[in-house]
User: Fold these one by one.
Assistant:
Number 1:
Amino acid sequence: MAEPAPLSPGELEDRLEELLEACLSSRRTAASLAPGIAELARSEQAFVLHWAGVVARSSAELAYQFAALAPRALALVGERGAQAWLLRAMDVFDRETMYAASAALKDLPRFAQEWASASHAVRLEDAARVLELFLCGLSGRPLAVAADGEPWTDTQTVYLPARVGRFASREANFLALKAMAALAWAQARFGTFSDALGAALAARPESMRWAAFLEAVRLTARIGHALPGLARDLARLEAPLDAALEALVAPLRAPHATVADSLALAARCDPSRPPPAWCYVGPLFPDRVAAARVARLARERDAFRLVLARMRDERVDAAPSRSAGEGDARFSAAVSEPDVTGERAFQLYFDGVPVAPPADAANLVQSILQDLGELPPDYLEPAGPGAYRPATGPAAAPERDAAASPAEAGVAVHDEWDFARKHYRRGWCVLRSRDVHPGDPGFVRRTLEQYRGELAGLRRAFEALRGDDRVQRRQPYGEAIDLDAAVAGFADRRAGRELPERLFVRRQRTERSIAVMFLVDMSGSTKGWINDAEREALVLLAEALEVLGDRYAIYGFSGMTRKRCELFRVKRFDEPYGPAVRARIAGIAPQDYTRMGVAIRHVSGLLAREEARTRLLVTLSDGKPDDFGDEYRGEYGIEDTRQALVEARRSGIHPFCITIDAEARDYLPHMYGAANYVLVNEVRRLPLAVANVYRRLTA
């Protein structure tokens, strides 16, 4: 179908006057803008009018400048480039001043030059989440991704360039980022950062470039043995080697080659002659790796000893005749040589009997083995009496919590999604965290008395969730014969093969690995019965969760405008449920408005740092997102909240909403999904409904 005829200057003038009325004057008129836009195609005119309207919501002056420059921008960089040019200026406006945003718009020639080379580039910001999942799938050990000028790793974080645009296609540039990440993983997995590396580079720092290149040759060969498909991707980026250099590096392609072989060859290379430039090879920093490794080893040793303490106590409970400190029963371990992927199989023993650690501790053990190649004797000593109970799981990281604390304790700045722009407003919302002031000390006592009968039933129901027995088949030992394995073994024996060893079944007590964040609406509309019901619901839930043992935190949210968003701490993950938390629950009181997106983003960040198989974000609310003024109301607030929930899901968090808003069906299915919310029709039913919903979610 043919494109409609362009709008005339008069029609455009009318539309522009409607959009830009706030900034027009006798010298700045819509009539001066209309002729330039009239020369555009109808689709381009629609583009200009749409974005002028979007920008005018924030600044009519900036919208006027955009409309004046838009025809030239479209001619230089097309619609896609013009949108990127405008969004960059809007980001500047959000973070800085009108003057700075105006300068960014007027800098169109430089942007056009950058756009010509950047249209095929890949930004790390866009690829980081995919790369983090890729690295986690490779290693099992979570590796963060961050921006830096060159690719390198300290074995905790993989640092990659913020932008890669050296190739002519986005696919090739993304492949380069992926190759950098894969090499960093391989350096940690296949022994690059041994003590020998640090000593060699300290003695011969000039050989670092050759050592990094030769290690890349060795590691790409190791990747080829373990992951042939990934190796083929890497090979597409490698510059060919001349015959002499190929002969030199040939020993490094053997499966048994080590970093010592790479260092020996590096010592023979002329440091004044640069090695071949493979785009995914970066520098090595053994000193930074050593610092990260020391912190990780101490953390993982303590966490593993806590796992052993729990396992020991379970066996003491199962054999009451033996006390926790009685006899010579000890843990020991057998560790195999690494397989082709660098992973080592291990078997734990307690008092000479094979035992299996909880499933959520398997990655912890593999991380220790990746660093040390063994489980040293001091790692196999269970934590003694009085050891802390880790609130953040087996892989809790003290330095990670310290890094989070400044934002949590003071002020945090978050982006906000503008659905009209289809882009984030960078650094748009300012959120302050504070503790809830203690409330009426008698509130919790009255609530427990009022719901005494119901609470007893909740506790019994939650006790039933604490864990169940899972039957594990084809085990080397157990309580009964695995008939399926025995039949298959009998067939093997009749065929002349050896009888397999794994002929038993045993029951393994499953442990819950759940972290839950409760986010409570503290807006002014909760005043009265709703506030009372929310507080009663939290009391009942906390009392029942103490029976269950799940890790949970409680935060409230409110605020007024984007500059005064507030998050109220009621209970942190690492805080026990006691008098202080009860007093804060009693002190939850109505505040201002309901700007939900920023609160969801902040608490999702706190929840994502918890080591758990299941992470839940449960919001208690009485209405749709709202804030002072008209900007956040309606579709804008709903879309921002929905985007914040999408971000949470990408982080492995499962959001759910419990609401008493009778109109919830009009907007919650769009925000949370049709099956991820529940409407409680009567406020008085909220306390028991919250506990029952949680029980169903985690059963």
Number 2:
Amino acid sequence: MSVTAPPVAAEAKPAVWPITISIMLATVMNSLDTTIANVALPHMQGSVSASSEQITWVLTSYIVATAIMTPLTGWLSGKIGRKLLFLISIAGFTVASMLCGIAGSLFELVGFRLLQGVFGAALIPLSQAVLLDTYPREQHGQAMAIWGAGAILGPILGPALGGWLTDNLSWRWVFFINLPIGILAFMGVWLFIHGNKHDNLKRFDFFGFGTLIVFIGAFQLMLDRGSSQDWFSSTEIWAEAIISVIALYLFLMHTWTAKNPFFDRALSRDRNFVIATVFGFALGVLLFATLALLPPMLEVLMNYPVVTTGLVTMPRGLGSFAAMFVVGRLVGRVDTRAILLFGLSLNAWALWQMTHFSLDMNSTPIIVTGIIQGFGIGLIFVPLSTLAFATLEPKYRAEGSAVYNLVRNLGSSAGISMLVAMQVANVEVAHADLASHISPDNPLVQALPTGMNPSTVSGAAALNGEITRQATMVAYIDDFKLLLWLNFAAVPLLLLMRKPKQTPKPDPAQAHGE
């Protein structure tokens, strides 16, 4: 018995790092595309002759497709096996990226982005599940730190890389960059992941999946079109809201009562998984909403060039990258809830500083808050993933990872849509408030330079432009304040989480056994 153990260990150990690198490449490629196209949108808009409203579908089509297809990961991995699904997803995503790069019309671009989301949806849940299976339980903290580096650095570094590629090459290269990464990831998975592990196979729940699709689709449409349709004064928004509520109700009731629901009810019985998933929704808002707000604030309001915007937001990624090294050593040694609390505290500090942004500031506050928030989000991202799966049975990992990432995606899309809509609405409110103080007997108005004299046409136009600038900054600050309150609201969730039991390190004979 003792003679057979060493060869197994010697055979398995060399594949750990090649598998990890291959999975990281797939993770980075997928997560990069959540934000890399943002800064290139104006260039795409002119190239495909689209309006401002139409070009946003380049972003939302990808998010919707990913959100809809993510829950299928568990069933598909059980049906055809993880390795084959991984290979199909990487190949499909890479080809779809190439097609996005050569798209000649808005219809083609949105369609190929939709295809990207369909194939890319499984990459994040699968990479998470495969890494957890590759590393022993006592190293899951380190494994999640490695995975988190790829998952979090993609959306953070995306705007910087997208700005550089767009400025120096073309917007098409924000998609072409995926080709070499995708080919390397495909070769790595093909060569180093042996076997084709099938998860617990069950019958496909068409009704559950259908109601989930209807809910996500209607909910996303409501959020995307709410601002342009004046929200609930529109019949369309009311219809989408009612459909999403009914579909969600039917999905939840069906999941609770069906013999073979789309999502296994065992997931809802794991307390840590449920709380961490709810927490993940808030994390999606905190991370992606901030990333969506900063580029337009810097480029449109403060006249930063695209490349400069990328450079001043890059330290946010460096902060997260540094956190990955720290958190990998802390998980398993320090109470995970304490790490999460410290990460939330750092994020709150950064958001509080962001509520003091002004039009007169230089780039230093942006860089400093970026580093602090990046480090704080990094401290939240990995421990939360570890805690979510700490007490979940291994057979539910692929399905659990799909649910966890689905909810986080919904948090990011909801956060972006709501905060952008709030920012637009608050500009009008702040503008009206500031304009109400413009009167000839106001000493501040009398002290204005001649170029802003409201008694002349040109002066009134210049003054109105300045009021709009100030009102826009006030609206951004209001958004940062809302994010700060959301950060505080997430803290009580820590009290509901259970501290995972420390797994004792196994002796060598057990560690090498199958």
Number 3:
Amino acid sequence: MRKYILYGILGLGAMSLVSCNDWLSEEGPMTNSPEDYFTGEAAAIQSVNAAYAPLMWEFNSTYYCEWFIGDIASDDALKGGQNTSDMADAYDIENFRTISNNTLLLDYYRAQYQGIQRANLCIEQVSGMSDDKFETNGLKERIVAEAKFLRAFYYFRLVRIFGGVPKVEAPIYTSDDWKQPRASLDDIYALMVKDLEEAEPDLPKKSQYESADLGRVTSGAAQAMLMKVYLYWGNFKEQGKSTTTVDCYTEAKKWGDTFLSEQAAEYSLCQNYEDNFTLEGENGNESIFEIQYMAEPTSDYGEGNGFTRGTFTTMLIRSRSANLDNPGWGFNKPTDNLKNEFEAGDPRKKASIREMSQAEMSNPTEETYLGCSNVAVKRTLTVDDEYMKLDHNSRSPINNVVYRLADFYLLYAEVCLKNSDTPGAKTYLENVRSRARGSASILPQFPDYEVPDYRQAYAMHQLTDTPEDLEMAIRHERRCELAMEGHRWFDLCRWGIVKEVMDAYKAAETEEARSAMSEFVAGKHELFPIPDEEVRLSGLTQNNGY
């Protein structure tokens, strides 16, 4: 699937803008329309391939990988880099000093809308093609379903960071359609649900794709995303004291049950946890949806969106130490607070965090950021604790697994708890802990262990067999299982505990780190500002407090 997607993007990236000529002038005799392009199934495939491409983007005028928010805004990671001034936009995000001209947020926001525009074009044009243009049975429906999933996914990325955003369901062809008002949070969630529910019946199972198409959206991905979207929607409705919260949790349970029933033969937990984060483990049994990257030795550094098919993440988060092979840039440094969350003997700690020794650091001043010298491991090291060899000194071919089965199991455990299915919640919590423990006598079953309690200055809390402590156990497990995978900030926000956790985290951090942190303001910092350029161009209402 990588070759299909990555080599098909250039024509459609431009095609999505062709019919915007009438913004400036009347069409000339050599002007093409979308209908001129969409003449057969090859064009339809290229169209949806183009809609996948913005998922890969991480650099335009600055780097804007989602973990700059998901990890660094949370208690899991510090910004890192050479010093505090290295990537000032990320430093502001880390310390709740973000303002509306933050370039990282602008690039991220616009990349998602590029994806939405491409998905909209695909949905409109491929849906309008006659069936006789397709030689492959069911291909037309599948392509439209892929595009609808992708549109929902791009909106999911946006809504978690900015709240309600403009709801655009068709290609923007004229200047009259350019300015779109912000939709409500409920409107965007309703659109995501509609897209996913319409897409799900027309998507193949993972095993039904040819190997060249491995990585495309599947019915399992749509079902798992429906559960996740409904759970998030219910979490935020719960914070708003909505009477329809129970409906969201009921629907989340329905889709979780559907996934478990219909996809049982499609997915399984990797026997070795680390295999999820290696080149050899890409698109493996545990992967529900991952962003595809590939090796590309040609130089395109600094060219911006769409000029690379590799990921910058590997080099961004590697240690800066010249004593190690292929040193990186040292961003996204795991905190001691995260390190202390792991139970004794938990092998996921070593698979997530490397504690650099003085001997390993060629320049301790550069390697230590605000008192922290930890280094993230996932997507940087091999299982033999060595850096993977790269074809380019800034990029890596390793995929980004954005949704895997262990994540689903823990979300499903939450869904079970919300639906008063305590046995189900315990079962899927234990599934994840069982894989992590392997054959060792560690990580006891719930409730026979202790977890750090942010409410008590991180004193250890002995779990008891109550729904409240089961919820605490699931949250603890998500932090350890998904450490440094970009989930933590979004979990804290949807759980409605981000203010309490970040205040406790700040109090427990080093004096050096605390001196940089601004106060977390409830009702403001759960969301980030809509980029100022978008506010001015489209007349959007800004988020509270910015």
